[in-house]
Structures are given as structure tokens and as C-alpha cells.
């Protein structure tokens, strides 16, 4: 399965084409719109979110609620396009530098992109580097989620840190934590931390600043053996890290214990292996059991069958209302960087995007492992593999 996206932040629409989905997969616009709405939700967003009301259009590859096996085209329209008809027109008569953005913002793609593509108007870079693109990636992720859910794989997550405030995550079943996160404006499971995070966001907004944070994605129901140890680009941890790092503003990724593993001796890191045949009676896939999951569900680039635990660190958004120093691209004179409309904090949105890209990569890994052109064929192949794992 592969996909590409197209579209500018203030252009007419965002488009994605997904290739390699099996036939017979139930997909509905409502399922996709639910994820799009989650991405727009979240304390700390700016005025753009008051304009947009993201809805998906399914333009190919789905008939009567099920995939055909042909490429699936997804579109999310930009409502703001109505305000940018001239400034973002594809027609030559609107050419000119009259309203050019020539002051690159530190931390954005502006300067490197302008030098690389030879643009003096930074808008030609920022329109595509904008995190608006993640709307359609969330739509792709929602389709991937449909495939995973059909196989009993569930994805959720939470904001675990924001502006330096850490949430305490209680030792409760993941679905309970996911429900609690869903009820929070910051997707945070710790009410006290959430209050403090909101206070920080209000303060950052008032002072023209921005805040980053850490999101954690968890996945349950994965069979052991997705991904492979045999080649660098087949290692699932590497592929998941790439998917997460491809999200705008993500600067770091951890799996399981993550960087903490580097600080502990091996005896306090690795998850000891036991065998308990009684778990098979409860429907658990394999009799091999672990008391801990410090590995975060991945060993040797393959899933272990334990829940997948991934974290991604988001830097503060680089567009500040109190701008940082920069220089003008035309005069080379120092300036305060341009102020584009911005969000104070988009960490909750980043969680939804992180879940989406993880879903996409896992759907890809599932299709590699179980093959099949139809959902039924995938389920047959999966069941055959699980039977072998049960008796291993
Ligand atoms: C973004 C800047 C803002 C955000 C945008 C990402 O957009 P605008 O420049 O129109 O105010 O609102 O995010 C979205 C539009 C979205 O849907 O998430 C940026 O520069 O990355």
C-alpha cells in the first residue's frame, strides 16, 4: 500500500491517492470525518480552524461502502480558498511580487525551501510545508484504520507532555485511558496536568508565543511478526519512526522506554519471556508471555504481539505573533520575521496525525505479511498464520 498527497494550504483542496488497498473493505465518509473532526478539536488552535470544517469526499475506489481494490482518491476541501482566489491563482495574469512574503520565519521551511527552489516569495514554500497537509493524511489514516479494525487492531493515544508539563498516566487498560483522553480538550488523561497545560497555552497566546509537547500512540491487537529484521528498510521500528518524523514539527521519536533505555542496565530494560498455555484459552494469540513491555511492542524491527508504544516530540510552532529576528530575502536587511496567522499550540492535533501515520504504516505492514487482494483473503491468510503462532 502506498499513498501520496497533493495540495497547498490556501489552495482549493487537499488530495490523496491510496494504492494497494484490498477489495471488500468497508469504508464510510462518517468514519473518516470522525478522525478529521478530532484533528480540528483541541485547545490552542488559531482562527483558521474557525473557517475550516473538514469533510472528506470519496472520489474513486469505493462503491456502495466497500473498496473495489482500485486506487482510492480522497479530497478535503479548503474553505479558506474562497479568500485566496487571486493570491493562490494558478493563472499567469496574477504573477507579481506585490504581496510577496520575503521574510523567512526561523524554524519554518521558508529559508531552506526558498534557496533550494529559487523562490524569492516564501509563500511558494510555506503553502506546501504547512501542516494543513496533515488533514488529508488523517483521512488516509482513517482508511488504514478501517483495515486494521477489521483485523481487531485498535489505535489510540494521548498527549503526555505539553510546554514542559508532564501528565501522570495511571496504570489502567488502554481503552479506558483512550476514553478519558477523548473527553479532554487536550487529549490528556490527567485532569490536573491538563489544567496547567491550558493555563500555559493561555499565557503563551497572550505573550505571542507557541508551545510544543509529546504525544504517545498505542496500538493493541497486533500479531507478532509484522516487519522484519532482515533488511534496514523492512524494520518496522525504522518505518514507524520515519512516518512519525514526516509529520510537520516533529523533532524526535521514542519506542517503548525510548531514551530511558540508554540510562538503565540491560537487566532493567529487556522484557523476560515466559510461557503460559492458559492464556491461549482466553483468546491470546501466543502462549509466550512478557511481564513488562519496555520494548514498546517491537524487537528486532518486528512486532512482539505486545501493545505498540510510540512517542513523538513536537517543537513549538515556528510562526510567532511576537516574531523572531530574520532578514529580508530581497534586501538582506534585518527584520522581524513575517507574521502569518498561527496556532498557539497544535499538540492535540499532532496526536491525531501521529495515530494516522502509524495506522498507515501498520496497514502497509499487515498487507506485506498477509498479502491478499480482498479483505476475505487477508483474513484467511492471517488466520492461517495465527494458527501456526498458537502452536509454536
Ligand atoms: C499552519 C498555519 C495555520 C494553521 C495551519 C498550519 O494556517 P493559516 O496560515 O491558514 O492560518 O491553521 O493548520 C491548518 C490549516 C490545519 O488544518 O491544521 C502552518 O503554517 O503550518
UniProtKB/TrEMBL annotation:
Which cofactor is recorded for it? FMNH2
Q: Known catalysed reaction(s)?
A: 5-O-(1-carboxyvinyl)-3-phosphoshikimate = chorismate + phosphate
Q: Is Lyase found in the keyword set? A: yes
Pathway membership, UniProt: Metabolic intermediate biosynthesis; chorismate biosynthesis; chorismate from D-erythrose 4-phosphate and phosphoenolpyruvate: step 7/7
Q: Keywords for this entry? A: Amino-acid biosynthesis, Aromatic amino acid biosynthesis, FAD, Flavoprotein, FMN, Lyase, NADP
The residues that hold NADP(+) are 39, 45
Asked whether the keyword Oxidoreductase is assigned, the reply is no
Entry's cofactor comment = Reduced FMN (FMNH(2)).
Sequence positions that bind FMN: 128-130, 248-249, 300, 315-319, 341
- The signal sequence is none
Which EC numbers does the record give?
4.2.3.5
Q: What CDD domains does the database record attribute to this sequence?
A: Chorismate_synthase (cd07304)
Q: Which InterPro entries match?
A: Chorismate_synth, Chorismate_synth_AroC_sf, Chorismate_synthase_CS
GO molecular-function annotation terms?
Answer: chorismate synthase activity
Subunit details: Homotetramer.
Q: Which family does it belong to?
A: Belongs to the chorismate synthase family.
Q: What does this protein do?
A: This reaction introduces a second double bond into the aromatic ring system.
- What NCBIfam families does this protein map onto? aroC, PRK05382.1
- What PANTHER family does the database record attribute to this sequence? CHORISMATE SYNTHASE
Name the record gives this protein: Chorismate synthase
Q: Which organism is it from?
A: Trichlorobacter ammonificans
Q: What's the source species' lineage? A: Bacteria, Pseudomonadati, Thermodesulfobacteriota, Desulfuromonadia, Geobacterales
Amino acid at each position: 500500500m502506498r499513498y501520496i498527497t497533493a495540495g497547498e494550504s490556501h489552495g482549493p483542496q487537499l488530495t490523496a491517492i491510496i494504492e494497494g488497498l484490498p477489495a471488500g473493505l468497508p469504508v464510510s465518509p462518517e468514519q473518516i470525518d470522525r478522525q478529521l473532526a478530532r484533528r480540528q478539536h483541541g485547545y490552542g488552535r488559531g482562527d483558521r480552524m474557525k473557517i475550516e470544517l473538514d469533510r472528506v469526499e470519496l472520489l474513486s475506489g469505493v462503491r456502495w461502502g466497500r473498496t473495489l481494490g482500485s486506487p482510492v482518491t480522497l479530497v478535503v476541501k479548503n474553505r479558506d480558498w474562497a479568500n485566496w482566489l487571486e493570491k493562490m491563482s494558478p493563472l499567469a495574469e496574477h504573477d507579481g511580487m506585490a504581496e510577496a512574503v520575503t521574510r523567512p520565519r526561523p524554524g519554518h521551511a521558508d529559508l531552506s525551501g526558498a534557496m533550494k527552489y529559487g523562490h524569492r516569495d516564501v509563500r511558494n514554500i510555506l503553502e506546501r510545508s504547512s501542516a494543513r497537509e496533515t488533514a488529508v493524511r488523517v483521512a488516509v489514516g482513517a482508511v488504514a484504520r478501517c483495515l486494521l479494525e477489521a483485523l481487531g487492531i485498535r489505535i489510540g493515544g494521548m498527549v503526555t507532555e505539553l510546554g514542559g508539563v508532564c501528565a501522570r498516566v495511571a496504570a489502567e487498560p488502554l481503552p479506558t485511558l483512550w476514553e478519558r483522553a477523548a473527553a479532554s480538550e487536550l487529549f490528556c488523561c490527567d485532569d490536573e496536568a491538563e489544567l496547567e497545560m491550558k493555563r500555559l497555552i493561555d499565557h503563551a497566546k497572550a505573550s505571542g508565543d507557541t508551545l510544543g509537547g509529546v504525544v504517545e500512540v498505542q496500538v493493541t491487537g497486533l500479531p507478532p511478526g509484522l516487519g522484519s529484521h532482515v533488511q534496514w528498510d523492512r524494520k518496522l521500528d525504522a518505518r514507524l519512526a520515519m512516518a512519525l518524523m514526516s509529520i510537520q514539527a516533529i523533532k524526535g521519536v521514542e519506542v517503548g522506554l525510548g531514551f530511558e533505555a540508554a540510562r538503565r542496565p540491560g537487566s532493567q530494560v529487556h522484557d523476560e519471556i515466559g510461557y503460559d498455555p492458559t492464556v491461549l484459552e482466553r483468546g491470546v494469540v501466543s502462549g509466550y508471555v512478557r511481564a513488562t513491555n519496555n520494548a514498546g511492542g517491537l524487537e528486532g524491527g518486528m512486532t512482539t504481539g505486545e501493545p505498540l508504544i510510540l512517542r513523538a516530540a513536537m517543537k513549538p510552532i515556528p510562526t510567532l505573533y511576537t516574531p523572531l529576528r530574520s532578514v529580508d530575502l530581497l534586501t538582506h536587511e534585518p527584520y522581524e520575521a513575517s507574521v502569518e496567522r498561527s496556532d498557539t499550540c497544535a499538540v492535540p492535533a499532532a496526536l491525531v496525525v501521529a495515530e494516522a501515520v502509524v495506522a498507515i504504516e501498520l496497514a502497509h505492514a499487515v498487507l506485506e505479511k498477509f498479502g491478499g487482494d480482498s479483505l476475505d483473503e487477508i483474513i484467511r491468510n492471517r488466520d492461517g498464520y495465527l494458527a501456526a503462532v498458537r502452536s509454536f
